[in-house]
Amino acid sequence: MTTAKPFDRTDAYLSLSLHASAMKHKHLRDLFRMDSDRGETYVAQGAGLYLDYSKHIIADNTLRLLEQLAEQRQLSEHIAAMFRGDKINSTEDRAVLHVALRAPRDATIMVDGQNVVPEVHAVLDKMSQFAERVRGGEWRGHTGKRIKNIVNIGIGGSDLGPVMAYEALRPFSARDMVFRFVSNVDGSDFAEAVRDLDANETLFIVASKTFTTLETMANANLARQWALATLSDPAAIAKHFVAVSTNEKAVREFGIDPANMFGFWDWVGGRYSMDSAIGLSTMLAIGPAHFRAMLDGFHAMDEHFRTAPYLQNLPVIMGLLTVYYVNFFEVGSIAVLPYDQYLKRFPAYLQQLTMESNGKSVTREGERVGYPTGPVYWGEPGTNGQHSFHQLIHQGTARIPCDFIGFKHTHNPLGEHHAFLLANMLAQAEALAFGKTYEQLRFEGVNEDLIPHRLFDGNRPSSTILADQLTPATLGSLIALYEHSVFTQGVIWGINSFDQWGVELGKVLAKRIIPELQNPAAPLRHDSSTNALIRYLRQA
Ligand code: F6P
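Above: inputs. Below: predicted complex with 6-O-phosphono-beta-D-fructofuranose.
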């Protein structure tokens, strides 16, 4: 790949800066008035998803310039490099191949001269056999009881994806089983997760890519003690604990038989791992066939991303629009608002995916960037958010682009709920875009004094993402959409979206503070604030 000009020195960046200063004076009301087909023009479809991006402060030339930006930043070459298995995670010298996790059995993806696809399918097959045995009651606990409870112990990517997918796919899950997720190194998380469970019927999945993460290891040790308190015999561990990891040595040292370990690879980042063996709890919940349907959904979006032209490419469009707002409209956050209760953990999942990936201040070459990068992603399901923070999105001083996500069909067609739900979603996007003018309020007879308070400026951008129904395949497409949007943003900004050095310092400092909290006599050599806080907490 030839060297591309840095992001803020590309011709497209300079043109976009000028163009955006002009666009800032445009209003969505006028853009829609001038082009009555806008709502049908600025749409794209792929992998079962429909994206309406007409309610963005853009015109045809915005899209042309964004397309040029993608070209000048060599986006397609970077996409090809990722799919080819190049070591694009340069600071860790690793390939980035979550796309291989959902590649069909006959695909070929080479890493270090070896096709990784057969290994991926071997693990999937092993997971499937295990899931069938547990779900079918063949795999029994140490005392012969059927396993009814699954407790996933993991944190970050080893928790957020599994818990999100479990919640999202509950309609497809085994309703006679209980699924719990323990992540925090707060004993309350573990205590509440197991308080009503019978150890004879409980299987723990210790999910950790490294198998060294403090929180997960602490909770896994607690789980072993808890299980043995009932089961007594250490041999019981083999029937009640399985591991998902890349670190076989540490799994063995913990006492889990490697035969009960489901592996993955260093080319799968933690936040990109929910469709690897890290998804074992998901497979236990929904069964192998639905899990594979989810992988097909991921793969369909991968293929769309790899092959569709930039301006018909959903992740590229979403990624470029994010760059447009972050770098030319001073946007600092993006709200993700799923109008589907089953997606209640989707925003939390996206927080790690987006912010651990693009929360970077240096380029891949180690130069400090001179422009903003990753925005804050946050959100809650609608309509709940409407009665909480939407006030700020409608009338606050910050511009917060929103992603609305909705489905044509609900899994629970009760009363008129679904129409109410979708109407609210559409109404929010309409209100944000078009607002309510002074003249409208006067016409309605609103008291002059109240008009400033009741005015809606509008011109607040949003995307609407629709699909037929929230199924395993749709969920896969939706996740891959955001994965590749994050990738697109990272390429444009020239940062490495696949390392996470920013989490290290806190981990090191915590290890130093642990004995200082536990031993009141230990000398304290921190700053005066940390010292005083430790002294206060030591009193416990
Ligand atoms: O601390 C951050 C992190 O490394 C994430 O990237 C990762 O998903 C999480 O911790 C958990 O890591 P592991 O799966 O190795 O326990």
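The mean pLDDT is 97.
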